[in-house]
């Protein structure tokens, strides 16, 4: 964060050493005495009892916290999990919507952005992962993929610094999304949806064995959407397809091949319109509030497209009863293009000057993660030991046009309360080009030790990172001027934690973890900027009572980020790294699924953020952005299992998001808001056996159509409306 606005051959050797052909050729020798016996490799899928299964609301295992199959109760760090079943019952259609009931997580622009899921976790923007591999971000953050939640089995949020296993990342945490994988049992689903804003969507999910022996498994998931949005002249067209194939030549080996393609087209620019403070956060004395469907662009000019392709594989192989190998690799290509007309300044409460601009961005990313795991005993201690080597290379290109001011008399002023469209807009010429390449090579190790009731976790990682940025700007004569900057950062990070397991299901824990993030740019004397660093102390207790399908986590934490860039007092064109920020808080989350058909999720977060050091006097002591002091949420879903209403399911939820600031100067306070959601569904198989597997559902978000501001970024024209009431009807058929 800021308070002012080399490929290495070792990775190729690692990839060769653990290649599928070499690993598949190995055989498992007989079990040796005195070692821990591993279970056979299990292909993760919707019906498997695996760490990624989404059978109900309650998850008890995860790979995100340890990069291995581990019990959540043994992991000395907070991990929040949203399962497939919870997403279905709540009617989730985006990642931002999925995390709405998760403590300490904020969707920065609410849930009405077609383009991206911008999140904040414990005060910082998280890295996003899919199946344990980092998703690209691009040079400016525009060529990041949008993940379709229908293709996910679950969403996991690892709180706090995670560099000890994953490398460069923010100290608040990360989001790891798990894709649907082929299943050993046949699975077939077709979904038809219709709802608010003329939304129509179809989806399908087919999976099962491709042969009688079950050595070959397949899965094919896809969606097709044609929809308008809350905003006039902004639509949402989407095509998504994700095939995957698993080969299990033996009980010791599985190879999963996966791919996905998605194209998003949004005439109107995709993003929520940027609106003035007067008319949103503050009521206009003359005109009241700006309508929540207001579009401030030009219908013939504004557009957003995102075309993304991913191809990858995961290889799991058990060498013997002690050792196992895993290798995951993926190539990702994202190509985005954005043209928008936005408000630049208000000349009165109602009249605005607009500008046109364009900013396409592309990114190409390759990454590979190799893991060697050993499970064994040494005396009274049982070890789960992991060694890893991963490599990432991302190359991105960003072009930005000049800002084409739309001034009278050629373009009349724009009335935000009574708009007239049809202005002639020409795409401004490109004024800035940024070509960026970043690489990361990381070597990591982790040992999870079980000693009687104690569970110790120790992890350490060393990273070699390099980032090269070539920036070009066009001069008055049309000539391009280029500058090139390279930032190298080598850093050791780690994590240490301990958990104590009581017989009654209580497990108190303590942990310490660190993180780092490379920075681009130079100081006044030409020195390269150092990485920002983060550290977290966390203490808490987890509760998983025997005989109950429930899980509770209560945690207290303190995060400190250092080496934050702040303006150089001698020359404000440069920065010095004397800034520091701190976030501390308490989080509580509980989830339960009862035999009587009741599912619950509840959460609360108390957060206190502060800019502790900066050269900007007006910001010293201020709060960080997107960090409300209080958050609370409760969702309950009940399915009637007997009586005349058998097969009916009802759900209701309430979320409270406290007030916060959208800029570091804390200029505009965003008011608190309480929203209510509701759901009802019916199993049509209760009407007739011929309809077995069919279900109808109705989900409503923001039930009472509460008008609220999602955020304001600190200028007079920087506010966004929150999402209106949204209704979605679903017909689902499974067989």
From TrEMBL:
Localization, UniProt: Cell outer membrane
Claim: Transport is one of the keywords in the record: yes
Organism: Achromobacter spanius
GO biological process terms held by the UniProt record: siderophore transport
Entry keyword annotation includes Membrane: yes
UniProt membrane topology term: Multi-pass membrane protein
Protein name (record): TonB-dependent receptor
Annotated TonB-dependent receptor plug domain residues: 73-173
Keywords annotated in UniProt: Cell outer membrane, Ion transport, Iron, Iron transport, Membrane, Receptor, Signal, TonB box, Transmembrane, Transmembrane beta strand, Transport
GO CC terms in record: cell outer membrane
CDD domains: ligand_gated_channel
Protein family according to the UniProt entry: Belongs to the TonB-dependent receptor family.
Stretches assigned to the TonB-dependent receptor-like beta-barrel domain: 247-703
Sample GO molecular function, one term: signaling receptor activity
PROSITE patterns: TONB_DEPENDENT_REC_3
SUPFAM superfamilies: Porins (SSF56935)
């Amino acid at each position: 964060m800021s308070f002012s606005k080399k490929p290495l051959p070792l990775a190729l050797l690692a990839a060769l050493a653990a290649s599928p052909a070499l690993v598949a050729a190995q055989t498992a020798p007989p079990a040796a005495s005195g070692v821990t016996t591993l279970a056979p490799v299990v292909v993760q899928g919707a019906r498997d009892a695996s760490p990624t299964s989404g059978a109900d609301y309650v998850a008890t295992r995860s790979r995100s916290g340890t990069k291995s199959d581990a019990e959540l109760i043994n992991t000395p760090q907070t991990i929040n999990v949203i399962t497939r079943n919870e997403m279905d019952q709540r009617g989730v259609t985006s990642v931002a919507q999925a995390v709405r009931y998760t403590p300490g997580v904020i969707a920065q622009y609410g849930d009405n952005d077609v383009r991206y899921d911008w999140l904040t976790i414990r005060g910082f923007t998280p890295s996003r992962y899919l199946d344990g591999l980092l998703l690209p971000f691009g040079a400016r953050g525009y060529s990041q993929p949008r993940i379709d939640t229908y293709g996910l089995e679950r969403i996991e949020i690892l709180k706090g610094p995670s560099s000890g296993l994953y490398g460069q990342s923010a100290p608040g945490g990360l989001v790891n999304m798990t894709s649907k994988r082929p299943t050993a049992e046949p699975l077939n689903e077709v979904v038809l949806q219709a709802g608010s804003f003329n939304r129509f969507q179809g989806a399908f999910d087919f999976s099962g064995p491709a042969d009688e022996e079950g050595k070959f498994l397949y899965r094919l998931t896809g969606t097709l959407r044609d929809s308008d949005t809350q905003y006039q002249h902004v639509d949402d067209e989407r095509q998504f397809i994700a095939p995957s194939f698993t080969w299990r030549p033996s009980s010791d080996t599985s190879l999963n091949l996966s791919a996905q393609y998605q194209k998003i087209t949004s005439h109107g620019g995709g993003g929520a319109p940027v609106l003035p403070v007067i008319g949103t956060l503050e009521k206009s004395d003359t005109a009241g509030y700006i309508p929540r469907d207001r579009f401030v662009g030009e219908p013939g000019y504004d557009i957003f497209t995102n075309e993304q392709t991913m191809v990858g594989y995961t290889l799991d192989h058990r060498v013997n009863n002690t050792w196992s190998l895993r290798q995951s690799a993926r190539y990702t290509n994202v190509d985005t293009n954005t043209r928008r007309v936005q408000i630049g300044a208000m000349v009165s409460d109602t009249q605005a000057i607009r500008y046109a601009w364009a900013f396409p961005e592309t990114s190409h990313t390759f990454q590979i993660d190799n893991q060697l795991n050993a499970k064994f005993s040494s005396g009274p201690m049982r070890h789960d030991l992991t060694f890893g080597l991963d490599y990432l290379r991302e190359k991105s290109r960003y072009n930005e046009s000049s800002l084409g001011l739309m001034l009278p008399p050629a373009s009349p002023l724009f009335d935000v309360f009574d708009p007239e469209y049809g202005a002639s807009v020409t795409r401004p010429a490109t004024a800035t080009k940024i070509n960026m390449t970043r690489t990361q090579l990381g070597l990591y190790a982790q040992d999870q030790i079980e000693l009687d009731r104690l569970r110790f976790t120790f992890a350490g990682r060393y990273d070699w990172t390099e980032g090269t940025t070539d920036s070009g700007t066009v001069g008055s004569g049309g000539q391009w001027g280029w500058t090139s900057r390279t930032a190298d950062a080598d850093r050791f990070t780690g994590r240490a934690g301990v958990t104590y397991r009581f017989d009654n299901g209580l497990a108190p824990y303590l942990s310490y973890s660190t993180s780092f993030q490379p920075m681009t740019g130079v100081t006044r004397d030409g020195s390269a900027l150092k990485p920002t660093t983060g550290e977290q102390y966390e203490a808490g207790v987890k509760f998983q009572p025997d005989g109950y399908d429930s899980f509770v986590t209560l945690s207290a934490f303190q995060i400190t980020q250092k080496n934050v860039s702040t303006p150089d007092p001698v020359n404000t064109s440069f920065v010095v790294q004397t800034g520091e920020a701190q976030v501390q808080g308490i989080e509580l989350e509980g989830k339960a699924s009862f035999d009587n058909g009741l599912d619950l999720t509840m959460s609360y977060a108390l957060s206190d953020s502060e800019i502790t050091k900066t050269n900007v006097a007006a910001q010293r002591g201020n709060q960080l952005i997107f960090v409300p002091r209080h958050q609370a949420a409760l969702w309950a879903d009940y399915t009637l299992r007997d009586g005349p209403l058998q097969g009916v399911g009802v759900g209701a939820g309430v979320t409270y998001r406290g007030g916060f600031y959208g800029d570091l100067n804390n200029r505009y306070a965003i008011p608190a808001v309480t929203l209510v959601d509701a759901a009802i569904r019916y199993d049509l198989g209760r009407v007739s056996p011929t309809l077995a597997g069919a279900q109808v559902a109705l989900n409503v978000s923001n039930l009472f159509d509460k008008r609220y501001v999602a955020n304001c970024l600190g200028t007079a024209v920087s506010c966004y409306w929150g999402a209106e009431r949204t209704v979605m009807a679903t017909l689902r058929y499974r067989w």
